[in-house]
């Protein structure tokens, strides 16, 4: 025992690290990847897609929990209740917009280009009718 072949195998083995720990995340990247593939949202799923999605989910959870903790401390309670979570989402404009599924509104912008392109054709049709 202890021959050269055994020592070579020990050197060749790498310690396994999860994709979550490599990305520095707490949320499970492999589980998100599995769900993306099983869900058939697309034919192909890139290697970085589950990492990004897990990071977004972790950020949303952290933001929500952080706000809920502050609300529960203000009400002098030690446990976070569903009402604290709901109040946290309602108080944060970012979370409220994200979790209600609303489309973000662009403020201060002129008419979108798709409508600009459509309006000149209407003018041409009215001019041709006048002739």
Automatic annotation (TrEMBL):
GO cellular component: nucleosome; nucleus
GO molecular function, one term: DNA binding
Region (Disordered): 1-26, 101-131
Domain (Core Histone H2A/H2B/H3) ranges: 10-90
InterPro entries per record: H2A/H2B/H3 (IPR007125), Histone-fold (IPR009072), Histone_H2A (IPR002119), Histone_H2A_CS (IPR032458)
SUPFAM superfamilies: Histone-fold
Top-rank taxon, per record: Eukaryota
Places the protein is found: Chromosome; Nucleus
Keywords, ordered alphabetically: Acetylation, Chromosome, DNA-binding, Nucleosome core, Nucleus
Similarity field: Belongs to the histone H2A family.
Subunit structure: The nucleosome is a histone octamer containing two molecules each of H2A, H2B, H3 and H4 assembled in one H3-H4 heterotetramer and two H2A-H2B heterodimers. The octamer wraps approximately 147 bp of DNA.
Identification of the protein by name: Histone H2A
Species name: Fulmarus glacialis
Organism lineage string: Eukaryota, Metazoa, Chordata, Craniata, Vertebrata
């Amino acid at each position: 025992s202890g021959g050269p072949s055994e020592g070579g195998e020990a050197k060749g083995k790498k310690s396994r690290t999860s994709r979550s720990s490599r990305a520095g995340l707490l949320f499970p990247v492999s589980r998100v990847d599995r769900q993306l593939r099983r869900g058939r949202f697309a034919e192909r799923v890139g290697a970085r897609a589950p990492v990004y999605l897990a990071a977004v989910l972790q950020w949303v959870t952290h933001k929500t929990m952080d706000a809920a903790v502050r609300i529960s401390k203000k009400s002098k309670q030690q446990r976070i209740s569903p009402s604290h979570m709901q109040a946290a989402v309602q108080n944060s404009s970012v979370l409220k917009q994200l979790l209600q599924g609303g489309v973000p509104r662009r403020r201060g912008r002129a008419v979108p280009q798709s409508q600009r392109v459509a309006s000149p054709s209407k003018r041409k049709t009215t001019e041709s009718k006048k002739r």
